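Checked the freezer inventory, then went back to the computational side. Two predictions to log before the end of the day. The first one is the construct we discussed on Monday; recording sequence and C-alpha cells without edits.
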Amino acid sequence: MTDAWVVNASPLILFARVERFDLFEQLAPKFIVPEAVLDEIRAGQAKDPTANGALNWAVQHSLPNLPVPASIEHWDLGAGESQVIAHGLAVSRWVVLDDLAARRCAVAHGLSVIGSLGIVLRAKERGFLSEARPWVNKLKAAGMFVDDGLLNQALAGIGE
C-alpha cells in the first residue's frame, strides 16, 4: 500500500479552520482529492469563509470522479465519501474520513483509514506537535465531532 492519502471534505475543512495543512504534508507524501469532494467544499463556501482555504489547498490535488462500485453504493454514503473510498480501492491508498459510516465502509473494503483525530495523534507521535490536546481542542471548536471517552482514551494512549 502506498503512503498517498485520499482526503474527504470534513478533514480538509477542519484543518483549514485551524490552519494546519502542514500536518497533512508532513505525514503523507501525496494526496488525492476527488472532484466530488471539491464540489462539497464549494457548496459550503457561501456559509463558511474557511472553505476557501480548504478549496485552495485541495484543488492542487484533485482528480476526476471514478465509477463507484456497487459494494460502496450499498452503504448509501455521500458523494464525497463514496468517491474517496472508490479512489482508495482503485489505487490502494489510505483514506482520510471522519464520518463513521464511511470509515466502516472503507474498513470493510480493506482500506487503511485515518481521520482528523488520528492525524493529530500521528503528528504528535512523529514529533511534529509537542502536544496533541490543544490541537484536538481547536479542531473540536472548529466543528470536529468526537466522543469524549474515545478522545480521552486516544490522548492517554500517547501520554496526554
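The second is the one RB wanted added to the comparison set:
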Amino acid sequence: MFFVRTASSEDLPRVQEILRETWHNTYDTIYGREKVTEITDQWHSMKRLEDMRHEPNSEFLVADNGTTIGGMAYATQQDKTIKLHQLYVHPDFHGGKTGLHLMIEIENSFIDAEKIILEVAEENIKAIRFYEKYGFKKAGEVTDCGEDGSGLAAVVMEKQVVYAED
C-alpha cells in the first residue's frame, strides 16, 4: 500500500529512475529507444526535477510504501486550471490504485481549480484508458507535447475537478 506525500530532494534519484524506466517501457516502441533516452536525459534531469519542486503554484508528489517510491505526479495551476504535467507509476506497480491516489491528491492540492488538463501520446492507449476511466475526455490535440519544439503529437484531455470528501 502506497501513501502519497510531497516529494523531497532525497526522493529525486528514485523519481528519475521511475521516469526513465517508465518512459522506456511505454515509449520505446512509439518513438524509439534513442529518442526516449534523449527526452528523459533532458526532461528528467536532476536539475529539472529539483526546479519542479520549487515551481510556484505547483505540487510534486510521490507514492511511497515505506520501502520504495512507486510513482510520482507533478502539476501546476494557472487561473482555475490544473495542468497535470506528469503522472507515472513504475511498471512493477501498474494495476493497483497508485495512479488513482496520485490523481486524487493532485486534484485536492489546488482548492480553487475548476478543471484539470493533460497531454498524452495518442499511441499510449493504456494511459488514455486510465484517464478516461477517471472522467477525462478528449479536448483537442497538440503537436509539441511536453514542451515547445518537442515535435511530439499528443491528445489533450480534460475533466472537471471533483474534490474528495473528508
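For RB: Strands lie at 3-6, 58-64, 69-78, 81-89, 115-120, 137-142, 154-160. The chain has a mean pLDDT of 90. Let me know if you want it refolded.
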